[in-house]
Protein backbone atom coordinates (compact mmCIF):
# COMPACT_ATOMS: atom_id res chain seq x y z
CA UNK A 1 0.00 0.00 0.00
CA UNK A 2 1.05 3.55 -0.63
CA UNK A 3 2.25 5.60 2.28
CA UNK A 4 3.43 9.19 2.55
CA UNK A 5 5.05 10.48 5.72
CA UNK A 6 5.57 14.11 6.51
CA UNK A 7 7.15 13.87 9.91
CA UNK A 8 7.28 17.61 10.53
CA UNK A 9 3.89 18.68 11.78
CA UNK A 10 4.76 22.34 12.13
CA UNK A 11 7.81 24.45 11.30
CA UNK A 12 8.26 28.01 12.43
CA UNK A 13 10.90 30.27 10.84
CA UNK A 14 11.71 33.92 10.57
CA UNK A 15 11.47 35.64 7.22
CA UNK A 16 14.49 35.14 4.92
CA UNK A 17 15.46 31.84 6.52
CA UNK A 18 15.73 28.79 4.30
CA UNK A 19 13.44 25.90 5.23
CA UNK A 20 13.18 22.30 4.06
CA UNK A 21 10.01 20.25 4.27
CA UNK A 22 10.54 16.51 4.34
CA UNK A 23 8.53 13.88 2.51
CA UNK A 24 9.23 10.16 2.72
CA UNK A 25 7.15 7.68 0.80
CA UNK A 26 6.57 3.97 0.40
CA UNK A 27 5.40 2.31 -2.76
CA UNK A 28 5.73 -1.01 -4.54
CA UNK A 29 5.32 0.63 -7.92
CA UNK A 30 8.44 0.76 -10.09
CA UNK A 31 7.35 3.97 -11.75
CA UNK A 32 5.31 6.62 -10.08
CA UNK A 33 4.64 10.31 -9.71
CA UNK A 34 5.07 12.53 -6.70
CA UNK A 35 3.32 15.82 -6.06
CA UNK A 36 3.55 18.79 -3.74
CA UNK A 37 0.56 20.98 -2.96
CA UNK A 38 0.26 24.18 -0.93
CA UNK A 39 -2.78 25.06 1.18
CA UNK A 40 -2.64 28.73 2.23
CA UNK A 41 -4.88 30.08 5.00
CA UNK A 42 -7.55 30.79 2.40
CA UNK A 43 -8.01 27.00 2.17
CA UNK A 44 -7.61 26.22 -1.50
CA UNK A 45 -5.10 23.51 -2.44
CA UNK A 46 -2.61 24.78 -4.99
CA UNK A 47 -0.59 22.43 -7.19
CA UNK A 48 3.17 23.13 -6.99
CA UNK A 49 5.02 20.34 -8.77
CA UNK A 50 4.78 16.87 -10.29
CA UNK A 51 7.85 14.64 -10.46
CA UNK A 52 8.19 11.40 -12.38
CA UNK A 53 10.23 8.70 -10.67
CA UNK A 54 12.34 8.37 -13.81
CA UNK A 55 13.70 11.84 -13.31
CA UNK A 56 15.94 12.30 -10.30
CA UNK A 57 17.22 15.69 -11.27
CA UNK A 58 16.58 18.41 -8.77
CA UNK A 59 14.10 21.02 -9.83
CA UNK A 60 14.22 24.72 -9.09
CA UNK A 61 11.46 27.24 -9.56
CA UNK A 62 12.33 30.65 -8.21
CA UNK A 63 12.76 30.31 -4.45
CA UNK A 64 11.37 26.77 -4.50
CA UNK A 65 13.48 23.69 -5.08
CA UNK A 66 12.82 19.99 -4.83
CA UNK A 67 15.26 17.20 -4.08
CA UNK A 68 14.12 13.76 -5.21
CA UNK A 69 16.17 10.79 -4.00
CA UNK A 70 14.83 7.43 -5.06
CA UNK A 71 17.43 5.59 -2.98
CA UNK A 72 16.00 7.02 0.23
CA UNK A 73 12.40 7.33 -1.02
CA UNK A 74 12.37 11.02 -0.27
CA UNK A 75 11.06 14.05 -2.12
CA UNK A 76 12.00 17.08 -0.06
CA UNK A 77 10.95 20.65 -0.69
CA UNK A 78 13.12 23.66 0.12
CA UNK A 79 12.04 27.27 0.24
CA UNK A 80 14.94 29.70 0.03
CA UNK A 81 14.68 33.11 1.69
CA UNK A 82 11.21 32.39 3.05
CA UNK A 83 8.56 35.07 3.03
CA UNK A 84 5.44 35.59 5.11
CA UNK A 85 3.34 34.66 2.07
CA UNK A 86 4.88 31.20 2.18
CA UNK A 87 2.96 30.51 5.38
CA UNK A 88 0.72 27.58 4.53
CA UNK A 89 0.26 23.87 4.95
CA UNK A 90 2.26 21.88 2.43
CA UNK A 91 1.23 18.41 1.33
CA UNK A 92 3.23 15.73 -0.40
CA UNK A 93 1.19 13.19 -2.41
CA UNK A 94 1.82 9.87 -4.14
CA UNK A 95 -0.71 8.45 -6.62
CA UNK A 96 -1.20 4.71 -6.64
CA UNK A 97 0.01 2.88 -9.70
CA UNK A 98 -3.35 1.43 -10.63
CA UNK A 99 -5.97 4.06 -9.97
CA UNK A 100 -3.70 7.12 -9.84
CA UNK A 101 -5.60 8.24 -6.77
CA UNK A 102 -3.12 10.16 -4.63
CA UNK A 103 -2.33 9.32 -1.05
CA UNK A 104 -1.61 12.55 0.78
CA UNK A 105 0.72 13.03 3.70
CA UNK A 106 -0.69 14.69 6.82
CA UNK A 107 0.91 17.97 5.77
CA UNK A 108 3.49 20.31 7.28
CA UNK A 109 2.32 23.65 8.57
CA UNK A 110 4.89 26.31 7.79
CA UNK A 111 4.71 29.58 9.71
CA UNK A 112 6.95 32.37 8.52
CA UNK A 113 7.26 35.23 10.99
CA UNK A 114 8.13 38.74 9.81
CA UNK B 1 -7.61 30.50 -9.57
CA UNK B 2 -7.52 26.80 -10.49
CA UNK B 3 -10.56 26.97 -12.77
CA UNK B 4 -12.50 24.53 -10.61
CA UNK B 5 -15.58 26.00 -8.98
CA UNK B 6 -17.48 24.72 -5.99
CA UNK B 7 -20.72 25.85 -4.44
CA UNK B 8 -21.68 26.68 -1.82
CA UNK B 9 -18.60 27.98 -0.04
CA UNK B 10 -20.11 27.46 3.39
CA UNK B 11 -22.97 25.29 4.53
CA UNK B 12 -24.43 25.02 8.02
CA UNK B 13 -27.04 22.40 8.68
CA UNK B 14 -28.40 20.13 11.38
CA UNK B 15 -27.88 16.48 12.14
CA UNK B 16 -30.05 14.16 10.09
CA UNK B 17 -30.31 16.55 7.17
CA UNK B 18 -29.23 16.05 3.56
CA UNK B 19 -27.09 18.43 1.54
CA UNK B 20 -25.75 18.61 -2.01
CA UNK B 21 -22.36 20.01 -2.90
CA UNK B 22 -21.69 21.06 -6.45
CA UNK B 23 -18.50 21.12 -8.49
CA UNK B 24 -17.65 22.32 -11.98
CA UNK B 25 -14.30 21.04 -13.28
CA UNK B 26 -11.80 22.97 -15.37
CA UNK B 27 -12.76 23.30 -18.97
CA UNK B 28 -11.75 20.14 -20.79
CA UNK B 29 -11.07 18.04 -17.70
CA UNK B 30 -12.97 14.77 -17.72
CA UNK B 31 -12.02 13.49 -14.27
CA UNK B 32 -13.58 14.78 -11.09
CA UNK B 33 -12.45 13.76 -7.62
CA UNK B 34 -14.04 14.42 -4.23
CA UNK B 35 -12.08 14.69 -1.01
CA UNK B 36 -12.92 15.26 2.63
CA UNK B 37 -10.50 17.17 4.83
CA UNK B 38 -10.87 17.07 8.57
CA UNK B 39 -8.44 17.75 11.39
CA UNK B 40 -8.32 14.18 12.61
CA UNK B 41 -8.41 12.32 9.29
CA UNK B 42 -6.43 14.66 7.06
CA UNK B 43 -7.19 14.73 3.34
CA UNK B 44 -9.20 11.64 2.41
CA UNK B 45 -10.17 10.59 -1.08
CA UNK B 46 -13.88 9.85 -1.43
CA UNK B 47 -14.72 9.07 -5.05
CA UNK B 48 -13.67 9.69 -8.65
CA UNK B 49 -15.72 10.08 -11.82
CA UNK B 50 -14.42 10.05 -15.35
CA UNK B 51 -16.64 11.31 -18.15
CA UNK B 52 -19.79 10.44 -16.26
CA UNK B 53 -18.74 7.05 -14.92
CA UNK B 54 -17.55 6.13 -11.47
CA UNK B 55 -13.89 5.11 -11.68
CA UNK B 56 -12.59 4.76 -8.14
CA UNK B 57 -13.99 4.71 -4.66
CA UNK B 58 -12.18 5.58 -1.48
CA UNK B 59 -13.35 5.97 2.08
CA UNK B 60 -16.83 7.10 1.16
CA UNK B 61 -19.64 6.33 3.56
CA UNK B 62 -22.82 4.66 2.35
CA UNK B 63 -24.71 7.79 3.39
CA UNK B 64 -22.72 9.69 0.77
CA UNK B 65 -23.19 9.45 -2.97
CA UNK B 66 -22.02 11.32 -6.02
CA UNK B 67 -22.63 11.62 -9.71
CA UNK B 68 -21.17 13.33 -12.73
CA UNK B 69 -23.54 14.80 -15.29
CA UNK B 70 -23.22 14.97 -19.09
CA UNK B 71 -21.90 18.53 -18.86
CA UNK B 72 -19.20 17.09 -16.55
CA UNK B 73 -20.21 18.95 -13.42
CA UNK B 74 -20.48 16.76 -10.36
CA UNK B 75 -22.55 16.67 -7.22
CA UNK B 76 -21.78 15.09 -3.88
CA UNK B 77 -24.81 14.19 -1.82
CA UNK B 78 -24.44 13.78 1.92
CA UNK B 79 -27.43 12.40 3.83
CA UNK B 80 -28.36 11.58 7.43
CA UNK B 81 -25.67 14.01 8.44
CA UNK B 82 -23.79 13.52 11.67
CA UNK B 83 -21.64 15.88 13.69
CA UNK B 84 -18.56 14.04 12.49
CA UNK B 85 -19.34 14.91 8.88
CA UNK B 86 -18.33 18.50 9.58
CA UNK B 87 -15.33 19.06 7.33
CA UNK B 88 -13.97 20.81 4.28
CA UNK B 89 -15.04 19.05 1.08
CA UNK B 90 -12.90 19.54 -1.96
CA UNK B 91 -13.50 18.79 -5.56
CA UNK B 92 -10.58 18.42 -7.95
CA UNK B 93 -10.30 17.82 -11.65
CA UNK B 94 -7.66 16.56 -14.04
CA UNK B 95 -7.57 15.87 -17.75
CA UNK B 96 -6.24 12.34 -17.38
CA UNK B 97 -5.32 9.89 -14.68
CA UNK B 98 -1.83 10.42 -13.34
CA UNK B 99 -1.87 14.11 -14.05
CA UNK B 100 -1.83 16.67 -11.31
CA UNK B 101 -5.21 17.51 -9.90
CA UNK B 102 -6.51 21.05 -9.68
CA UNK B 103 -8.57 21.74 -6.61
CA UNK B 104 -11.57 23.94 -6.10
CA UNK B 105 -11.88 26.34 -3.15
CA UNK B 106 -13.79 23.78 -1.10
CA UNK B 107 -17.12 23.74 0.70
CA UNK B 108 -16.95 24.05 4.47
CA UNK B 109 -19.74 21.96 5.94
CA UNK B 110 -20.76 22.48 9.56
CA UNK B 111 -23.25 20.05 11.07
CA UNK B 112 -24.82 21.29 14.30
**Overall geometric form of chain A:** globular
Helical coverage of chain B, percent range: under 10%
N- to C-terminal distance of chain A: 41 Å
| Structural class estimated from helices and strands of chain A | mainly beta
**Which parts of chain B are unreliable, with pLDDT below 50 for 5 consecutive residues or more?**
none
User: What is the structural class of chain B?
Assistant: mainly beta
CA(first)-CA(last) distance of chain B: 31 Å
Give the ordered list of helices and strands of chain B. Answer: EEEEEEEEEEE
- In helices, the fraction of residues of chain A equals under 10%
Mean pLDDT of chain B: 93
Largest sheet of chain B: 7 strands, mixed
Indicate the low-confidence ranges of chain A by residue numbers: none
What is the gist of this entry?
The complex is a heterodimer of chains A (114) and B (112). Chain A has 114 residues and is mainly beta.
What does this entry look like structurally?
The complex is a heterodimer of chains A (114) and B (112). Chain A has 114 residues and is mainly beta. Helices cover 0% and strands 53% of the residues of chain A. Chain A is built from no helices and twelve strands. In chain A, the strands form three sheets. In chain A, strands 2, 5, 6, 10, 11 and 12 form a six-stranded mixed beta sheet that branches. In chain A, strands 3-9-8-7 form a four-stranded antiparallel beta sheet, with no helix packed on it. In chain A, strands 1-4 form a two-stranded antiparallel sheet. In chain A, strand 5 and strand 6 form a beta hairpin. In chain B, the strands form two sheets. In chain B, strands 2, 4, 5, 6, 9, 10 and 11 form a seven-stranded mixed beta sheet that branches. In chain B, strands 1-3-8-7 form a four-stranded antiparallel beta sheet, with no helix packed on it. In chain B, a hairpin with a 5-residue loop joins strand 7 (64-68) and strand 8 (74-78). Chain B is globular and about 35 Å long. At the A-B interface, strand 5 and strand 6 of A face strand 5, strand 9 and strand 10 of B.
Amino acid sequence: AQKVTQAQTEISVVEKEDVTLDCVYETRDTTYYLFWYKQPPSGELVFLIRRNSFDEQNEISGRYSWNFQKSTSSFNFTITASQVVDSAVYFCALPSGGSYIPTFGRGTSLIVHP
Amino acid sequence: DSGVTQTPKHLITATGQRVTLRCSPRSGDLSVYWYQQSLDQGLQFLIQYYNGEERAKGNILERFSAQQFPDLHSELNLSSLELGDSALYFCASSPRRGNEQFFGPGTRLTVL
